[in-house]
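USER: Fancy drafting a protein?

ASSISTANT:
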Amino acid sequence: MPKIRSNAANDYHMFYCPGCKCHHAINNRWQYNGNPDSPTISPSILVNGTIKPYPGMIRCHSFVTDGKIQFLSDCTHELAGQTVEIPDWPDAEVN
């Protein structure tokens, strides 16, 4: 099952972040290896903002390599400093 979903018409790719408990999207400013089952994206992905279910601001900073998310230590969620598999994209999800 794919870990990333792409929208070629709008030139973006999305994956589910288990740290933020929501999807993160990247566009053509990042390099993506085109493999939805084992994605590698570079450079790092930095998300700052308000994301439910977290009160206030959250920071999520990560590298995505070979289908795994390496959360850097400056993340403000519970997966900071850990490396985890990107969850499979659920069949029920839509673009």
